[in-house]
């Protein structure tokens, strides 16, 4: 049996047609996933393949958070379908971020919390990011600056300062994740924050906060009087 495509399904069962006639909100996770997968594999139609993916990874979040090697362990799936799904996830993330750019001042820790959880979701390794703000604390840009184990030897205050100057930032919020899920700052986290604050004072950029992100929770160092 050849690979089953969505167009080979009965009209009423086709996820694309259902989306057009009933709206995307009325599709199941498997139906939405099938639209992006487009084709099944030999002996497995696309809807069955979508259900197998959901069962293997537990959720849409699990699929989008999987590595390429993990994704390819599912028979018939490779780089092309992985890239399609990763691109879809990134589009959603960017659309959400656009709303924040337009409507939020980054002075409320609760707002920053939601923004960071959206951006750090599915990160499997440690990443260090900064939110550059203007004088009204509106977001100029969000950037991941360093990857891997974050400590004072691997995050360079000079690079951060250059980044602030390049984009005319008046203030900054730092964030990094702990893949372990523990959001309590280590001594290295505290020492690094002190170094960053001192460096950025020299160029008149105010450090508003440093967030640590775990599993669906964050820790604000400013809220705990650590900055």
UniProtKB/TrEMBL annotation:
Superkingdom of the organism of origin: Bacteria
Keyword Cell membrane applies: no
MPN domain boundaries: 105-227
Keywords, sorted A to Z: Hydrolase, Metal-binding, Metalloprotease, Protease, Zinc
InterPro entries given in the database record: MPN, RadC_JAB, RuvA_2-like, UPF0758, UPF0758_CS, UPF0758_N
NCBIfam families: PRK00024.1, radc
Designated name of the protein: UPF0758 protein
Species whose genome carries this gene: Marinicella pacifica
